[in-house]
């Protein structure tokens, strides 16, 4: 009988892993691609694979134990959160949003959500949502001692809060009512350019402390910065600056430090960049724990986080792909330790969501909680050297931005002076360039578009007040081109078209023909394929030559001559070579937006 060893060493049969050996193997691969040569030092190999986030945080190809800062679940700096009741639906609050202008429709939707998996409701009231005066009707039948209610009323925050508190008092639910009154004067300034009242927010917080012990009054909302195209660190730095401003206002109104911390909830966006979103929530707890430490708050004080799936990542085109985006974002929110999670319905960009869309949004969370048991694991990302390192680097970048805001006089002053807007605009310009070059691909929009899709019809959603930071979406430039193509098709009965002139056998030209078709279709441009001699019968005036580099050397110039003799006003080539008669090129990493705009112009498609 074999006696098992006291300690099983799983790697005992393998030679020790050495970093330089790994670098040598990577170098061999990079040499084949031309990214490295025989003379490239091993010490430079990892740098060739390292990229930077929009915050300047390096994203390496390999992480080891040395890269991860120490940390234990539940202890400072509290990036690794622990919930004693972290099983099942107690893992996080499933928070459903509602903004229908008809109170009866909103009430029906609220009750349906609460009866089918949601554990709280998020009501958008006033301009851009349900009338504030209809709040008692909307909440008729909702058990306020069981279901938390979060208000979002913008300029009417004080009016909405008063209506809700009156309703809670009339029902005798003061000791048990929970949720948030949604006072966010700095978030209002970011969205509309008009600041709300910090004094009013502080007064609401003081009243909650006195009369409604489970109710919070204040939200530090980071989504305006995210929706304007900001980076993760820019959003985190801004919400921490907002949180600090609220702490000053609340303690100045007579609340203790711990009471003030207990009145603030953070709201941030999570997107389909899984690891960045995980690190973002963990970094926010790290930052707020630091603020708590220097403020003299009680040990164990941590950020209350409401994660919302990104509005900027949502698309109007091929909206069903949004279900995949929100699933990844929700997973990241759960792994990152969000206290409440809101999933945007997949049709949010099309208008007011229908019952099916809200059901899918609810069930996305239920599946992760109940079937995947995600909330049963304490800090699933904990111990990942990549996640731990990314969390720390992101926290440091956010803290640097936060201190810059503080030096400028605080968030209100930084918003008023344009510091925040200018910083975010620069980040959005870099992101927009990556989107245009398809380095940040959008499935169903910039990649694999479906020109034959029939979009579901939805009632128009009420517009939210603007005037502050801009609101952008990652798909906006491609979707504008698709709209332009749709208008042309409606006016003429046919979509704009590009002829793909293929050279050689199918096996030779398929890869580049498929690439070119995918690119042109991202702008709403149909493609037809054939030999250059077939161009005259294609019904278009723009062509793109597609084949291999070898055949380009032999046939590209002649193909371009044939195409132009047949009436082509523009000849593109799929690849990077320069050949006589070829006017422009499309290739991986080219500015697809510029190429598509030029092509639509050449085809006579009106803007």
From TrEMBL:
One GO term in the molecular function aspect is: cobalamin binding
User: Which InterPro entries does the UniProt entry name for this protein?
Assistant: Cbl-dep_enz_cat, MeMalonylCoA_mutase_a/b_cat, MeMalonylCoA_mutase_a/b_site
Q: According to the UniProt entry, what is the EC number of this protein?
A: 5.4.99.2
Q: Name one GO biological process term.
A: propionate metabolic process, methylmalonyl pathway
User: What cofactors are annotated for this protein?
Assistant: adenosylcob(III)alamin
Which Pfam families does the entry mention? Answer: MM_CoA_mutase
Annotated source species: Actinomadura verrucosospora
Subunit text: Heterodimer of an alpha and a beta chain.
Q: Which domain of life is it from?
A: Bacteria
> What UniProt keywords are attached to this protein's entry?
Cobalamin, Cobalt, Isomerase
- Per the record, GO CC terms? cytoplasm
Q: Which SUPFAM superfamilies match?
A: Cobalamin (vitamin B12)-dependent enzymes
Query: In this protein, which residues make up the domain named Methylmalonyl-CoA mutase alpha/beta chain catalytic?
Result: 135-454
Family the UniProt entry places it in: Belongs to the methylmalonyl-CoA mutase family.
- The name under which this protein is listed is methylmalonyl-CoA mutase
């Amino acid at each position: 009988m074999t006696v098992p060893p006291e300690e099983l060493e799983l790697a005992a049969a393998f030679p020790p892993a050495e970093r330089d050996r790994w670098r040598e193997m990577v170098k061999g691969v990079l040499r084949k691609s031309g990214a490295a040569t025989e003379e490239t030092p091993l010490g430079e190999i990892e740098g060739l694979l390292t990229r930077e986030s929009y915050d300047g945080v390096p994203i390496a190809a390999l992480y080891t134990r040395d890269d991860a800062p120490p940390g234990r679940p539940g202890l400072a700096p509290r990036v690794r959160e622990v919930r004693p009741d972290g099983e099942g639906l107690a893992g996080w609050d499933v928070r459903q949003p509602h903004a229908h202008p008809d109170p009866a429709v909103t009430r029906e939707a609220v009750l349906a959500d609460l009866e089918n998996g949601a554990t709280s409701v998020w009501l958008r009231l006033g301009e851009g949502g349900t009338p504030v005066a209809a709040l008692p009707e909307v909440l008729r039948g909702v058990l306020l001692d069981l279901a938390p209610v979060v208000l979002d009323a913008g300029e009417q925050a004080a009016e909405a809060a008063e209506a809700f508190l009156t309703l809670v008092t009339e029902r005798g639910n003061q000791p048990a009512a929970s949720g948030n009154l949604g006072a966010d004067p700095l978030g209002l300034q970011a969205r509309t350019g008009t600041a709300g009242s910090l004094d009013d927010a502080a007064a609401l917080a003081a009243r909650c402390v006195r009369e409604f012990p489970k109710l919070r009054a204040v939200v530090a909302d980071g989504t305006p910065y995210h929706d304007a195209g900001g980076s993760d660190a820019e959003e985190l730095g801004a919400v921490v600056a907002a949180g600090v401003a609220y702490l000053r206002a609340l303690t100045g109104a007579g609340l203790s430090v711990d009471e003030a911390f207990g009145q603030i909830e953070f709201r941030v966006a999570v997107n389909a960049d899984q690891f960045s979103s995980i690190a973002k929530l963990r970094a926010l707890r790290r930052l707020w724990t630091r603020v708590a430490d220097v403020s003299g708050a009680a040990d164990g004080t941590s950020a209350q986080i409401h994660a919302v799936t990104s509005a900027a990542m949502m698309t109007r085109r091929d909206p069903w792909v949004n279900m995949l985006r929100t699933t990844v974002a929700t997973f990241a929110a759960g792994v990152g330790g969000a206290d409440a999670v809101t999933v945007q319905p997949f049709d949010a960009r099309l208008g007011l969501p229908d019952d099916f869309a809200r059901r899918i949004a609810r069930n996305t969370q239920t599946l992760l909680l109940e079937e995947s048991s995600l909330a049963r694991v304490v800090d699933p990302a904990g111990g990942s050297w990549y996640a731990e390192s990314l969390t720390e680097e992101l926290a440091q970048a956010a803290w640097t931005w936060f201190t810059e805001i503080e030096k400028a006089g605080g968030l209100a002053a930084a918003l008023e002076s344009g510091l925040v807007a200018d910083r975010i605009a620069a980040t959005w310009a870099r992101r927009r360039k990556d989107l245009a070059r398809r380095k940040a691909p959008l499935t169903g929009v910039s990649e694999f578009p479906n020109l034959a899709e029939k979009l579901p019809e939805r009632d128009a959603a009420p517009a939210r007040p603007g005037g502050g930071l801009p609101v952008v979406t990652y798909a906006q430039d491609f979707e504008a081109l698709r709209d332009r193509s749709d208008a042309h098709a409606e006016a003429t009965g046919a979509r704009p078209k590009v002829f793909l002139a293929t050279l050689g056998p199918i096996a030779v030209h398929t890869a580049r023909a498929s690439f070119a078709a995918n690119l042109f279709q991202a702008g709403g441009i149909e493609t037809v394929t054939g030999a250059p001699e077939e161009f005259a019968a294609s019904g278009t005036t723009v062509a793109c030559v597609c084949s291999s580099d070898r055949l380009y050397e032999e046939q590209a110039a002649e193909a371009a001559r044939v195409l132009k003799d047949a009436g082509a006003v523009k000849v593109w080539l799929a690849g990077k070579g320069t050949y006589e008669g070829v006017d422009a090129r499309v290739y991986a990493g080219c500015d697809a937006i510029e190429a598509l705009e030029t092509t639509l112009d050449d085809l006579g498609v009106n803007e």
